[in-house]
Each structure stands twice: as C-alpha cells, then as structure tokens.
Amino acid sequence: MIVEYVTAVPHPRSEAPGSARAGRMSLAVALLCGALGAAVALLATRQRWSEGTVTVAGGPFPLIAKGSDVTGVPAALAIVGLAALVAVFAVRRAGRLMVAGLLALCGAGTVAAALLGASDSAALDEKAAQASGDTSATVEALTHTAWPYVAAVGGALILLAGLLALRYGRLWPGMSGRYERGGTPRPRRRAPAPDPDRPEELWKALDRGEDPTGA
Fold first, then answer.
1. Topology (CATH) of 22-174
2. Whole-prediction pTM value?
3. pLDDT by residue for the chain (215 residues), tens digit each?
4. Residue 132 burial by CB count (10 A; 0-12/13-18/19+): exposed, middle or buried?
5. Largest alpha-carbon pair distance within the chain?
6. What kind and span of H or E run contains 51?
7. CA–CA distance, 89 with 87 (Å, rounded to integer)
C-alpha cells in the first residue's frame, strides 16, 4: 500500500490580503512617526538646552543656550526628513528605496547630533566671552536640560519611519494612481450603451421625434 503525502502550497491570492494589511499598517505608522518625529525635533531645538553663568564686573551674569545655538543639525535634518517622507510617495522602485534610505539617515543624524549637543559647552563659552569682553572667559556652573534627549527621541521616530519605508515601501501606493508610467491618464470605463428594446428607451426615442422601429 502506497501512501502519498501532498504538501499544501499557499495560493498567491491568499497572501495578498496579508500584504495589503501590512502595507496599510506600516504606512500609517510611518506617516505618524515621521511627522511626529520631525515636529518633536523642531520643537526641542527651540528650547533651552544648557545654562550657566560668567563673572563680569557686576558679579555673575546668567547665560542660556537654546538648541539652535548649540547645533543647527537636528532642525535641518528634521526638515529634510519631513520632505523625504512626502517624496516617498512621488517615486517608485529604486527611487523609493533611495528616498527611504535618506529618510532613515536623517533620523540617525538627528539622534547623533542631539546626543552630541547634550554635553556641549561651546555655545555658552562663546556667549561668556562676548558678555565679559574676555576671549578666554568660559561658562561657569554649567548645567544641561533634557531637551537634547527629546530631540533624539524625535530623530529616533524619523529613523523608524525610514526603516518602515525601506521594508514596506514597495507595498505603499504612489502619489497618483490614475496615470500610467508614461504620464498619460488611464482610460475610464464607459457606461454601457442603452438597450433600445427596453420600454423606457422606446418612449424616450418617441419624445425625441425618432422612429424606434427604424433600421
């Protein structure tokens, strides 16, 4: 007695709903992470990152440095990343992979720049020299806030959006689905021609003064 074992092969159509669901879910998460990450990074660079004092003739003089004073890299990369997130839908195939890679690099660069700026004192040293009139003056009682790490979180969200675009971008729709590759609009389906044998069509023909029985 011979027993045959048949291995079930999944039909391609059975995998389509799962792929479409993964594409929609990844698209929503990427858009949310990219937009939120860019907004968080931009907001964080406008906040106070560090503060300290410098000794002048009248005593200690307070100094503060915002994120934009420390480094302009996070804000610039956040804007570029936001533009790349929109551009992902304007390109396809290899172009989409390149833009998705740029989006991921913007996120990684934002994280790195924010973490480097978390312990930076150059901006306050420059302000201390200007306030005291002594080029060798440095900031005293230097302290840092948590805003650089908030900017790093924003960069991490942008990085996540880029990684999702690299992984699932091929499943995402394009910006304009009505057009073919050559740029010409796809022909729309025409409505079916009216049936002359239907009673209502006969009455309409009579109203127009036509002979519905004519060949």
1. Butyryl-CoA Dehydrogenase, subunit A; domain 3 (1.20.140)
2. 0.71
3. 455 544 555 554 544 566 778 778 888 999 999 999 999 999 999 999 999 999 888 788 899 999 999 999 999 999 999 999 999 888 888 889 999 999 999 999 999 999 999 998 898 999 888 888 888 888 888 899 999 999 999 999 999 999 999 998 888 887 654 444 444 555 556 555 555 556 666 666 666 666 656 55
4. middle
5. 110
6. strand 48-56
7. 5
CA 201/CA 121 separation, integer angstroms = 85
- Number of Cβ within 10 Å of residue 131's Cβ equals 17
> Residue 12 is encoded by which pair of tokens?
């391609």
Phi-psi sector, 177: left (phi>0), alpha (psi -120 to 50), beta: alpha
Rounded CA-CA distance 69/41 in Å is 14
Coil, helix or strand at residue 60: strand
**Please, what's the b/e burial string for 27-60 (b: 16 or more CB within 10 A of its CB; e: otherwise)?**
beebbebbbebbebbbbbbeeebbbbbbeeeeee
Rounded-to-integer distance, Cα 195 and Cα 179, Å: 32
State both tokens at 4.
């045959």
CA separation for the pair 14, 16 (Å, rounded): 6
